[in-house]
Amino acid sequence: GQNIDQPTEMTATEGAIVQINCTYQTSGFNGLFWYQQHAGEAPTFLSYNVLDGLEEKGRFSSFLSRSKGYSYLLLKELQMKDSASYLCAVTDSNYQLIWGAGTKLIIKP
Amino acid sequence: DVKVTQSSRYLVKRTGEKVFLECVQDMDHENMFWYRQDPGLGLRLIYFSYDVKMKEKGDIPEGYSVSREKKERFSLILESASTNQTSMYLCASTTGGPENTGELFFGEGSRLTVL
């Protein structure tokens, strides 16, 4: 079966750096997405990786290794507003999106 | 600003009632999707559509139907609501047809409680 694994919950301190991991086993691969979802709100797009390597976008970076079925989202200079759930999703060979359950990130002052 | 609008943020219905959830997007997107989101589970696809009057079953279509009479509008119908359909329902849209790998734009969600 197809599977996306990410930690259920993580805690980090304001101003610090946190890395949220995502591993996947899917039938084929056509790209990996990260979305941010604040409590009670809609998910919003953060990043898209289709080739191996690191994509940097301001305080957020996303890394992909296709051979290892692995990605991470790196958040730097954490702010209280970064408290949210982070969803990893993979597009499989049929262009269907497979979603992880999300990682709830708690930022403490 | 691009927008996906869902008709109701919160609904409370009784078992056996018919429920309509409406979704409208103003981005001229071809693709529209209905998901449900439950604690501890990833988003699960109920139905999707790549064109007007076209619909495809997702992973969990049982107990649901959809309608896409106009490009901008995608409706989710629960013919006879049951308590296990209590959930957050998210509508999303994107451009490009079946092989699109673009980002999804989500509505704010409709939290349905079935008593």
Topology overview:
The complex is a heterodimer of chains A (109) and B (115).
Chain A: E1 3-5, E2 9-13, E3 18-25, E4 32-37, E5 44-49, E6 53-57, E7 60-65, E8 70-75, E9 84-91, E10 97-99, E11 103-108
Parallel strand pairs in A: 2-11
Antiparallel strand pairs in A: 1-3, 3-8, 4-5, 4-9, 6-7, 7-8, 9-10, 9-11
Chain B: E1 4-6, E2 10-13, E3 19-21, E4 23-25, E5 31-37, E6 44-49, E7 56-57, E8 65-70, E9 73-78, E10 87-94, E11 105-106, E12 110-114
Parallel strand pairs in B: 2-12
Antiparallel strand pairs in B: 1-4, 3-9, 5-6, 5-10, 6-7, 8-9, 10-11, 10-12
Mean pLDDT, all residues of chain A: 95
N to C succession of SSEs of chain A: EEEEEEEEEEE
In whole angstroms, the N-to-C terminal distance of chain B is 37 Å
Unreliable spans of chain B: none
Tally of separate helices of chain B: 0
Q: Which structural class matches the secondary elements of chain B?
A: mainly beta
Reading the helices and strands of chain B in chain order gives EEEEEEEEEEEE
Largest sheet of chain B: 7 strands, mixed
Shape of chain B, please? Answer: globular
Counting DSSP H or I runs of 4 or more residues, the number of helices of chain A is: 0
Strand content of chain B: over 45%
What integer value in Å does the Rg of chain B equal? 13 Å
| Helical coverage of chain B, percent range | under 10%
Report the β-strand fraction of chain A as a percent range.
Answer: over 45%
**Quaternary structure annotation:** heterodimer
The major pleated sheet of chain A works out as: 6 strands, mixed
Low-pLDDT parts of chain A are none
What's the overall average pLDDT of chain B, rounded? 93
Computed structural class of chain A: mainly beta
